[in-house]
Every structure is written in C-alpha cells, then in structure tokens.
Specification:
The complex is a heterodimer of chains A (390) and B (297).
Chain A (H helix, E strand, L loop, with lengths): L1 H25 L18 E6 L16 H8 L2 E6 L3 H8 L6 E4 L1 H9 L28 E2 L2 E2 L1 E14 L24 E4 L5 H11 L13 H15 L2 E5 L2 H10 L4 E5 H6 L6 E4 L5 E10 L6 H11 L2 H11 L17 H4 L5 H5 L1 E3 L19 H12 L1
Parallel strand pairs in A: 1-2, 1-3, 7-8, 7-9, 11-12
Antiparallel strand pairs in A: 3-11, 4-5, 6-9, 6-10, 6-11
Chain B lengths: L1 H20 L1 H30 L3 E2 L6 E2 L5 H8 L1 H35 L2 H12 L6 H12 L4 H6 L11 H25 L3 H9 L4 H29 L3 H6 L6 H9 L5 H25 L6
The chains are: A alpha/beta (390), B mainly alpha (297).
C-alpha cells in the first residue's frame, strides 16, 4: 500500500510538473516597441537559428567558414541551430533560446505578429545601406514602416526539365499544370502548402477572370480554383519533394522529368544529367530570407553585429554562394569564388527579381489591398494542401 | 580496515535480513524502476497525447491555446480526408501482413521442421541479418530497386511487365521486406513447439500434408501467427518514412501526423490523428483477446 501511494504521489507530481512547464511555454513574449539608438559593448555569446548552411563555422567543411572571422572580430561566441521548415523554425524560436533568426517570408510575418522579433534601427547596421533597394521595405520584412529584418539572400523556384524527354523546350508552367498529362507519373512539385501560390501565379496569368492580383492573397473562390488545378496536377505527380537530395536523385535517374526546383539543385546535378532550369514566362515564386532579432534577445549587441556582418560583401558572398542563392549586395559579387555565380543567380537583375513573387505568409487580411473580402490564411492553406495530396 | 569491512558486511546483512522479512518492500524495490519507466515514459506520454488532442492552436501565431474542445477529434472522425487516409493505411497494413505471412510460413516451416540443425542455425542468422542494416538504408535500397531504370524494371521488362515505381505497391513491397524478420521469428518459434510426433501421428492416421497442416499445425500456430501479424500490422500502421521514400505522392496516417507536427505546426491535430492507429490497435488486440489466442502466447 505504501508503495502504491508513493507511486500515486510521484504520478501527481509529474503531472503537475508537466502542466507547469506547458503553461510556461504558453506565455507569449511581449513586443518591445522602442528601437535602440546606440549599441553597447558586445556580449560574450550569440545564439542563432537559420536554414542549414546559413552560418557555417567550418565544422561541416573546413573550407566553408564565415563564422570564425566574425567571432574573432567581435568576441561573440556563436552557436548555430539549423532548421528544416519555416514552421519548425517558429516553434524553435518560441523557446526564447535564440538571439537572431534567418527566416523566409512565410515565417517572418508570423514572427512579427507574435511579437517575437523586435523592430530594427538600420542606422546601426552600416552595411544595410549597400543592400539592393528592391529587397528593402518589402511586405515580408517591413510592417507599418518599421523594418524587422535585414536581407540574407534570395532566389526563385525554377522550372526544371529533362531536355531529352520534355520537347519542345517549355517556356511556361503549363507543362506541370494543363499539359502535365504528357508526362504522367514523372512530374514533381514542392511538398509544402506554400506551393499553392505556384498554382495561383499560373492562374493569375492564364485565368484573369479570377482576378488574382497576388498569389499569396486568395479569397475562397480563388483558393478553390488553385486547389482544383493542383488536384488535377496530383494525377500526374510521380512524387512531391521537400528534401532537395531526393529531388536531385529523381531527376538524375529520370524518375522525374519536369517540376519545380532551386538553382542550387540544378548546380548540384552531375555533368551528364540532361536537365535545364528556367524562369518561365509567368514568373515564379521565390524566397527572400531575412535576419531578425528576438524581442527577448540576451545578446542584442552581438545580434546587431551579426546582422551587419552577414550583409558585409565577403561574408554575404561566402554564405549565399555556399547555399546557392543570389547575394544581397553588388559588392558581394567580387568576393565569389566562382565569377559566374552572380550571373547564374541573376544577382541584382531587377527585371528578373520583379518576376519573382517572394514567399510571404497568407493572412486573412488581403495583401493585395482588397477590403470587401476575407482572404484565406496559412492554416487554411495547410488544410487545403493535405486535401490535395489526399 | 577490517573493522570497516565488517561494518559494511553487517550493513549488507541487515538490509538483506530486512528485505527477507518484508516481501512487499522487496517486490516494491524490484519493480519500482521498470514500473516508473512504464508509467512515466509510456502511460504519461500517452495521457499527454490524449490531452493535447483536446487543445487548439492559434491560427496565426501558432501558439497552443489550452482551451478544452473536441473539435480536433470531431474533425478527424468526420473529415473525408482522414477517412480515406485511414482506410488506405489499414489496407496497406493488412496487405503487408498477408504478404509477410505467405512468405514467412514456408520459410519458418522449412527452418523448424525440415532443415538440419546446421542449416537451421544458418537460416536464423540469414533471417536476422537484414536487421543489422539501418532501416533507412533498406528503404533507400528499395528506392533504387523500384526506380524506372532500376533492377526490377530490368528484370520485368523482358516479361512485358514494368516496375510498380514509387507507389503504394512499392510501399507494400518495401514494408513487406523490412518487417519480414519480425514475422518469421515468431512463426519459427511457434513451429518449433509443434512436436514432430504429432505430425507423424497425423500421417499415420492417413492425413495428407495439407490436412495435417490445417488440422494440426495451424491451430497450434495461431498464437504465433497473431503475434507476427501484430508486429507487421502495427509497425506498418505507424510508418511514414518508407512512404516518403518509395510511396511517390501517396500519404498514410504517419505522414499526416508528420505534416501536422512539422509543416502545419499543429500539435493538437497531430495528436488527434495519432489516436486513430492507437484505437485501431486496441480494437485489433481486443478482437484477438476474444478468440483466446493471447492466452496461448
């Protein structure tokens, strides 16, 4: 009996502890609205969260290291945690363990709305002045005139095809939508709710009567049209990809012959692979990633130093070339190991950049300025995406 | 020194005497560690899962709202998506189980009843060997086998057939391969317990091999078959990695859980979906219990 009661006590104690810790995470940090006007002395440590390959310290590849020079320069000891999806990033960042985060546009607005990141004083980030102007003050890094993030790099979701199989050479996304049945079972698509925007972009051009002005701002009718298009596409999909290594192997073996891709995937393919990656005539979706500082940062001064450092030509060149995306300043192009890198990513090409609809979080308030309807939010998109996959 | 040693001896002796005279304490000490493991790690996390399924997530910030609601569970039970995926998952799990039993029965029978003890040992090692390799290695090996320029296509094309490619058929083949040892071993152990004398007696009384199998071996083997099927069925029911690697565009329950934890950041919904395989397994085990097969296990 004594044993049983001891057991009961311990079970109750555990339950209480679980509840308490759960309550602890439920509290949201309050947003600090005051922007710092000058920086203090650097703290000793800096904790970063970002996409894999965004802060390399040479531990993955001794030749790839732009963190160590930063540590030597500033005295801030960096710890870096990579994440796999924007949503994983959100839940990790909520723990409050990180001073700064590199986030894509489908996460940044949610971070800002949740009060988890602080507005920046860009005067304290001298290298920000050299950043391409078409990357500044955009809807995924600026809210109510306040800048929350400095750009890290950007790229487009391209159309890749097998030149031996897909003939004539496509110039439009129709090969993965209306004409996809010609390649039934060998079409691929990116496995994320945000891919709905790719369908919306296609409809924006080919079905103007739907009135889509921004692929991330869809009302129920427009979303339904995009979902129908993707459900029809589903019949021709061989497999969806989110792991870029899986995509490379499928294109190399010929199991996939056409579908969305990233420049880094094209660049990683073996020389004998007969593939081409293009930016179709409709334009494309893409990403533009920003470094943001936590509103509860323990090392805000080190975080400011990092934001400035990552936009410096040498560090930005190293980081974006390693990941396979365009750098955010023209000066970075001079520091690239390969002189072709900037050209292949179309860095600074404003006409090219204007064709890219950068990932941003769909919210109920329509991003295209419509006031008379409610738009569909990301939760609705996630549900729709599961329906599409069936 | 000797004094210390004897003090220790006498302490140990006193403890041992105390434990000898108090059987309850003895039992408590013996069971407390495994019970704590079972209760805290397993039962508590199952309870936490159930409780999480009753919460919701703030759509925008993604924070968990601890308000009691049955919405998730109602959504999962009534949503056509979840019904389709549940049926598909159960179908795949049943197919994998049937395929495994059909392959495992003759192998196990040969090992237990026909092979010499040397061959028997070698075969046990051969059956266990795939377990030494990582699950991922095996799944990716099947990815290249099933590829349209893979070995399966090369073997089948002369016969006018083609590889099933990355599809549910591919998933059944891969899972059938991966879980096969877990089905062969219980069947082998079950067949070992069938005395040869019974088989001889059946044959003396004029039973043909199939009649012997049906009337003598099968009834004695039922508990082993059920044990094996629980392995292949439950392991398939919860899998999502193989589906990701060789399943092409198809998804199973595990994938829905994974998407809700990862992409959708909706833990309560993931918990609600995770309850489906748990309920199915409870149903299966309850049905098996009714047949009385578990008592012979």
């Amino acid at each position: 009996m004594k044993f049983m009661s001891a057991l009961k006590v311990s079970v109750v104690a555990t339950a209480v502890a679980l509840t308490l810790s759960a309550c602890g995470t439920a509290a949201t940090p309050t947003a600090s609205s005051d922007v710092p006007t000058k920086l203090g002395a650097n703290e000793k440590t800096l904790s970063l969260l970002g996409w894999p390959g965004y802060a390399e310290d040479g531990s993955n590849d001794p030749k790839v290291d732009w963190v160590t020079p930063f540590e030597e320069e500033t005295g801030c000891q960096v710890t870096f945690k990579p994440y796999g999806t924007s949503d994983e990033a959100l839940s990790l960042f909520k723990t409050g363990d990180y001073d700064a985060i590199a986030a894509s546009g489908d996460a940044t607005l949610r971070l800002i709305a949740g009060g988890q990141v602080a507005p920046l004083n860009t005067d304290l980030i001298p290298n920000y002045a050299n950043v391409y102007s078409f990357l500044k003050n955009r809807e995924w890094n600026t809210v109510d005139g306040k800048t929350y993030g400095v750009p890290h790099g950007y790229g487009a979701n391209l159309l890749m095809y097998n030149t031996k199989v897909v003939k004539p050479a496509p110039t439009s996304w129709d090969v993965v939508f209306d004409k996809a049945s010609a390649y039934k079972g060998k079409v691929t698509a990116y496995d994320s709710p945000i891919y709905i925007a790719d369908a919306a972009l296609y409809l924006m051009v080919h079905k103007p009567e739907l009135g889509i002005k921004n692929p991330y701002s869809l009302d129920e009718t427009q979303l339904a049209a995009a979902v129908d298009l993707l459900k029809a596409q589903r019949q021709n999909i061989g497999e969806y990809w989110s792991d870029y290594l899986k995509s490379i192997s499928a294109f190399e073996s010929g199991d996939t012959v056409v579908g969305t891709t990233w420049q880094v995937i094209r660049n990683s393919m073996s020389a004998k692979a007969t593939v081409e990656a293009i930016l179709p005539s409709e334009g494309a979706t893409g990403w533009s990633d920003s470094w943001m500082i936590s509103s509860t940062a323990k090392s805000p001064n080190c975080a400011y130093a990092w934001l400035n450092y990552i936009d410096s030509p040498k560090a930005n060149a190293a980081a974006t070339e390693y990941f396979g995306e365009a750098p955010v300043t023209q000066a970075a192009c001079d520091f690239m190991a390969s002189k072709d890198t900037c050209a292949s990513y179309h860095a600074g090409d404003e006409a090219y950049a204007a064709k890219i609809w950068y990932w941003t979080t769909p919210i109920t308030k329509c991003l295209d300025g419509r006031k008379d309807v409610q738009c569909t939010d990301y939760a609705r998109w996630t549900e729709a995406w599961q329906e599409i996959k069936g | 020194m000797t004094g210390g040693a004897s003090a220790r001896t006498s302490f140990a002796r006193r403890v041992s005497t105390m434990l000898y005279s108090r059987p309850r304490t003895r039992l408590g000490l013996l069971l407390s560690a495994p019970l704590a493991w079972l209760v805290l790690i397993y039962v508590a996390s199952l309870a936490a899962l159930l409780v999480t399924a009753l919460w919701t997530v703030d759509d925008y910030t993604g924070a968990i709202k601890m308000e009691w609601t049955f919405d998730n569970i109602v959504h999962v039970v009534t949503g056509s998506l979840y019904q389709t995926v549940t049926l598909r998952t159960v179908g795949v799990a049943l197919l994998v189980t049937v395929v495994d039993l059909i392959i495992a029965l003759p192998i196990a029978f040969f090992m237990a009843k026909v092979a010499s003890s040397r061959i028997q040992r070698l075969m046990v090692i051969a059956v266990l060997m795939p377990l030494w390799a990582s699950y991922l290695v095996k799944a990716y090996a099947w990815r290249s086998v099933l590829s349209h320029d893979g070995i399966l296509a090369w073997l089948l094309r002369p016969l006018g057939l083609d590889t099933p490619g990355y599809s549910l058929t591919g998933v059944v083949l891969t899972m059938g391969y991966i879980w096969l040892p877990y089905v062969i071993l219980p069947l082998y152990a079950g067949l070992e317990r069938v005395p040869n004398s019974l088989l001889e007696a059946a044959s003396d009384l004029g039973a043909k091999s199939f009649t012997t199998f049906r009337t003598v071996v099968l009834p004695m083997l039922t508990p082993a078959i059920i044990a094996g099927s629980i392995f292949s069925f439950s392991l398939t029911l919860g899998d999502y990695i193989t589906v990701n690697i060789v399943g092409g565009a198809s998804q199973m329950l595990g994938n829905l859980v994974y998407t809700n934890v990862g992409t959708a950041n909706n833990l309560p919904m993931a918990a609600a979906i995770a309850l489906i395989p748990i309920v199915i397994m409870f149903g299966y085990i309850a049905a098996v219990r009714k047949t009385g097969a578990l008592e012979n296990l």
